[in-house]
Please model this.
Amino acid sequence: MDASAGQCAVRGRPSPGLCAGAAGPACRWRAAGQPAGRRVRRLRQGAPGGTETDPALHLQLPGGETGYQAAQDAPLARVLQHVGQLKPVLAANADVIAYLQAGFVGAWGEWHTSSNQLTLPEARTRIRDALLAALPEGRFLQLRYPPYLMAWAPQAPRWQDGSKAARIGVHNDCFLASSTDVGTYSEDAPTRRRERDYVAALAAVAPFGGETCNPADAVDPTPRGDCEDILREGRQFGLTYLNDTYYRKLFHARWEAQGCMAQVRRSMGYRFELAALRHSATVAAGRSGELALTVSNRGWARAFNPRAVHVLLSHRPTGALVRIPLASIDPRDWLPGTTSKVNARLAVPAGTPAGAYDVLLALPDGAAALAGDVRYSVRPANAADGARSQGWDEALGAFRVGTTLRIQ
Model:
């Protein structure tokens, strides 16, 4: 006998993906309405006495959009030394890293106009390899220019195929700004089409994000700033985040005026909606029951970093909580624009007191240090449904699915 959670509502809370801050930060969007996490460039470092310090990173930055040709970077040996110094800091902060933008090379760390020839093939390959070695396992690197990625891997990699290419996404810091996105892509139309197709395919494997920019330095300064542009290309490239503060007047302000900004915010990254959860009505303590979960991802991207799926059983008489991990379910498999149906065994621990339990579904942070912090649990986009006793439980960081499981 199965108990059904019913069909969950489609409407829900928007999932944030617009990132306020310095140009091009990689932010971790953990859950709608929850802390967005720390930016990768604001690294946490434990200090004596239990306090925390935020080391500052000093860069030589251009004075404006078009005055970048004279920007200075460091010699290759110094860059590699700095990357090596970052490795223990990155390891200590792996739980709050979404993606790491490569940086270090040229103006704004965008891997162009290097004063030390760091964009030559050998130098950029050595920097890439050093960054991948320094980055905690399972975290992604982002680079600025598609041709570099295509030179390393002419065919787009597959999801988790074990290659270096499968760990590297793109941050397009002139997204939508001109026909070439101000030099992101080639000025040759056929080459540009191949590059764009590559980046679109790569977005299924590694994260894509960035910011818009002022097209003043473009050969063809014609921005694609209408709602139809961001809605089409946001989906096409699997947009996970976008700088919220730049370059607003040609992009964000137009999306607001044309009425699509709320949809853009909802769509960036992943957006999980629970369609149904069905489970055995009665299970004996120490035994397993059946569970079937149906989830739709209405966002533009998959989840890239690990995340757990737990069933919580709340004992009705006492409120005692039983947490059951569903290790066979990986939310990273819930692809954008699809509905996923997964089955699992619901293993009730031996010694669980008999009685009626309310069922909740939780998606806690995948990092052990944050798994118990409900602020970092993913909140499904479903609206509360009082008639079905469905809704978000703030205290538990879990969604009440409105069903009952009896333990014998």
Q: What stands out?
A: The two ends are 15 Å apart (CA to CA). Confidence is low (pLDDT under 50) at residues 1-16, 21-58. The longest helix spans residues 76-92.
